[in-house]
């Protein structure tokens, strides 16, 4: 109804606040998706930091309950929920989540304590979102060293979380390099487009500037339509 302009978005936010004690992964996934859309819309306004604060407030209680480590008797959906919640809190700049993500990322890179598969994406996204050129270099190094395609894809999808304009350009250049399989280039560009307001503008310009190469590469297949969609 809010998207159709029939009610105020404020009403939606009030409804969302009522889900603060919700344990169900599917519900949180839906909340996360809708908050993501709102956050994207508000990134073009003065309210972007306000929506980040709202996200931190909504997701903090469930984040505190879940913690970082699996508990005995947990199911698959709990692991998915943990990844979703920590990623959301980290991207939104939740201080404790950011500090813990950086600590665990450092141990992972140094080989002291490898991150579980469920925690890699949220940790990667968090450290990149609030990271610098050395963070990006470390991620690209992890990508190069990864012996499983699944890990390479996981890294490719989150690289767009980086915020600085010159680093965004570096990620876009990487997308068309030989380091990335042609079928995965769209994931990297899409990650940049979804990562930030600056990323969207940069990705749009990049696609226009390299349109001929991208179009010839995908020959009107489903990947070109996916690229246009993102």
TrEMBL record:
- Can you quote a single GO CC term? cytoplasm
Q: Does the record carry Transferase as a key word?
A: no
Swiss-Prot/TrEMBL keywords: Aminopeptidase, Hydrolase, Protease
Q: Using the record, list the residue span of the signal peptide; answer none if the entry has no such feature.
A: none
Where would I find the ERAP1-like C-terminal domain in this sequence? Answer: 2-229
- Stated family: Belongs to the peptidase M1 family.
Designated name of the protein? PSA aminopeptidase
Question: Which organism does this sequence originate in?
Answer: Formicarius rufipectus
Gene giving rise to this polypeptide: Npepps
């Amino acid at each position: 109804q809010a998207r159709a302009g029939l009610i105020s978005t404020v009403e939606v936010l009030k409804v969302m606040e009522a889900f603060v004690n919700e344990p169900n992964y599917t519900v949180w996934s839906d909340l996360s998706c809708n908050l993501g859309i709102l956050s994207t819309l508000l990134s073009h306004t003065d309210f972007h930091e306000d929506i980040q604060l709202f996200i931190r407030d909504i997701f903090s209680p469930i984040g505190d309950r879940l913690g970082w480590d699996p508990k005995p008797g947990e199911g698959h959906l709990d692991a998915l929920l943990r990844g979703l919640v920590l990623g959301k809190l980290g991207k939104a700049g939740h201080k404790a989540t950011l500090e813990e993500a950086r600590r665990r990322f450092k141990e992972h890179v140094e080989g002291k304590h490898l991150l579980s598969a469920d925690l890699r994406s949220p940790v990667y996204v968090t450290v990149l979102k609030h990271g610098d050129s050395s963070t990006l270099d470390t991620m690209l190094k992890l990508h190069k060293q990864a012996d499983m395609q699944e890990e390479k894809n996981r890294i490719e999808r989150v690289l767009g979380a980086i915020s600085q304009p010159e680093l965004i350009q570096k990620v876009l250049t990487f997308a068309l390099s030989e380091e990335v399989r042609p079928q995965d280039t769209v994931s990297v560009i899409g990650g940049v487009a979804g990562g930030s307001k600056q990323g969207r503008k940069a990705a749009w310009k990049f696609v226009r500037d390299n349109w001929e190469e991208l179009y010839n590469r995908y020959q009107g297949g489903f990947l070109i339509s996916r690229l246009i969609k993102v």
